[in-house]
Design goal:
By secondary structure, the protein is an alpha/beta fold. The chain is built from 10 helices and 10 strands. Bound molecules: adenosine-5'-triphosphate.
Amino acid sequence: MSNIIEVRDLRTVFDERVVHDGLSLNIKKGEIYAIMGPSGAGKTTLLREMLMLQEPQSGSIRVLGYDLKNIQYKEAQKLRQMWGVLFQSAALFSSLTLKENIALPLVEYTDLSDAMIDEIVDFKISIVGLKQGDGALYPSQLSGGMKKKAGLARALVMDPELLFLDEPTSGLDPISVKEFDALIVKLRDTLKLSVVMVSHDLQSVYDTIDTLAIIDDKKIVYEGSLENLSGSNSDFISRFFNMDINKVGFHE
Ligand SMILES: Nc1ncnc2c1ncn2[C@@H]1O[C@H](COP(=O)(O)OP(=O)(O)OP(=O)(O)O)[C@@H](O)[C@H]1O
């Protein structure tokens, strides 16, 4: 499998504070890749750097073959349309209906007719498990789980290859978390997506991912499968999980 994202020797500094130093990772095409680590370890910052929302001090980031440091404006525009992003808050516009929220990137970036946009939006509403009747509702009329699904439908509306999720299940009840996790796996399989997510939820990670990366002390201290993690002899990893990680995988 080829790498869809490569980060090499990343260094990020805010004022005097070094957040990343010598951080490297590889994300393969088609995988679900989770980034975990203690609060303040720089997970969201890393995601923002991959999304060109923030620049590191040094090191390189390649996404879908583009070197983000030397990328031209036009290429950057193209790249932004090849990924979808769901941030923690889902960030829906309160004055727009669910359908209008999902349609927004199509209205902004394409010349498609209203009828075509309508058709695409209806399709995205159904693939994330919302009902067509929900389309006319405003964000204040949606449950937390519905908001996440609406945010996901909007992230998928341009048919991206790559999906970024920042704490996608935060604030959801355990049943909605399970449902959302299953949805992510199903979408990865049916839409042939690669998924990068920041998560705090160990159970969610166990149910969903192919590769786990753990950031600590400014770099990646583990990158690999969950099976190998249980054999890993790192103090940090046992402290971080603070539980018998062998048990978690079998928990239903
Ligand atoms: N724009 C900024 N200016 C200054 N410091 C920042 C900025 N963004 C992040 N930081 C600092 O960088 C560090 C990493 O923050 P980040 O949000 O990436 O951590 P995180 O691992 O995602 O944390 P959490 O799990 O709590 O969300 C923190 O110390 C934070 O205060």
